[in-house]
């Protein structure tokens, strides 16, 4: 039965009126299984109006009551986790275990946001001056919006709206049109959890909806995750409108292997980090820098053996290590990059093109691919491939290995594999990248820390979730107070000095 997704505005499903739709695929089958309505500017305006109407009551609600709604939401998502995972896997292609992880990492931020009564506490100084006290408070910035990518349709929306709603904002979510099922279901569960209508709205759409979010004067903060070019576009547009904006872009995450590393463990770690979710992660470890030719030879040999064991299958196959990529167009893009690497002179050790799964020949599958002898001048190295492709570079020294991620246009994540505490500490201090793993291949911070890269991996000054997220969705108000004791004081014409 074909699915049809519309919009979720002011607590209910609203039929799209544009007449424009986008196909939804089951990547495992390579077939269209539904359609999603693409919003008009008018429909985005209606969502903003609903969010704006809900804002006074929601922002005035005491924070522990907002936290109770989030507690209820967390319990409901956990109760429906299997349902959500099946929707996610069917529309995205990632295997069920990975979909459950997607949901859980989002719930981690919801759990963090449930502590909002503590997170919103301001500062207080009694006696800052004669009879004068000073205190600060954090207040919600207002109506906020999030624009999220296809690769984490549960986690990233919850990263955004969990903190925003907890702090008293109301929210409009524009999810990817490739897999909108889970975001729509999350909005329904938020209403079931007790959130008033209009607190969380979902508007499905494409560039027209994105531009409407950028331009709408009542949206005061915008969070984005996607490609770097679009992140820059959103950042520039929002900045011109005077909005707060955090825009997370692409990545080229490096794994540095020093000669003293536990190579067997590094191979295991990098296999999962490079090929999990078919490499469709902004924190996928897609590039290895082996220090020394002997290290490189040993790594490539061991990785080649490991790739022969990988099981690529349909998203519901519990034995599959990873599933298909999201669309036929993305499959072609990845295969074009593989050919680019060949043309540029890199050594193609394992070729994942022309992979075919028996009984699912129409599916969007790319087999695990491994390149060796990749050079920093190659375009395939400079760009983000976003697929199950691992590139290996060779460097003779620690300094050379440190330089590669530091000079790359992207600066999202990096990992170093070593037994040397001194080398790891120096690397973490000096590398020009936002998130660092030491013998940890995917250094995504826990929910009470913040997620964010550097350079073309992030535009704006605020990171996702953690206290950075709280600060992003709130504004500080500082109050200086004095209660007269009955004695009238003369006018003061100098700037006040607290003495």
What report would you give on this structure?
The chain has 16 helices and 23 strands. The chain is an alpha/beta fold and 499 residues long. It folds into 2 domains: 3-249 and 457-479, 3-Layer(aba) Sandwich (Aldehyde Dehydrogenase, Chain A, domain 1); 253-438, Aldehyde Dehydrogenase, Chain A, domain 2 (3-Layer(aba) Sandwich). The strands form 6 sheets. It has a 7-stranded mixed β-sheet with strand order 15-16-17-14-13-19-20, sandwiched between helices. Helix 2 (63-79) packs across helix 7 and helix 3 (81-92) packs across helix 4.
CATH topology value of the largest domain: Aldehyde Dehydrogenase, Chain A, domain 1
**Whole-number tally of structural domains:** 2
Total count of helical runs of at least 4 residues: 16
**What strand line-up does the widest sheet have?**
15-16-17-14-13-19-20
Quote the beta fraction. Answer: 15-25%
Shape: globular
Query: What is the CA-atom radius of gyration, in angstroms?
Result: 25 Å
CATH superfamily of the largest domain: Aldehyde Dehydrogenase, Chain A, domain 1
Largest β-sheet summary: 7 strands, mixed
| Through-space gap between termini | 75 Å
Uncertain stretches of 5 or more adjacent residues: none
Please tell me the CATH architecture of the largest domain by its name: 3-Layer(aba) Sandwich
Instruction: Round the mean pLDDT to the nearest integer and report it.
Output: 96
Count every beta strand, where a strand is a DSSP E run of 2 or more residues. 23
Specify the CATH class of the largest domain: Alpha Beta
Helix content: 25-40%
Class derived from helix and strand content:
alpha/beta
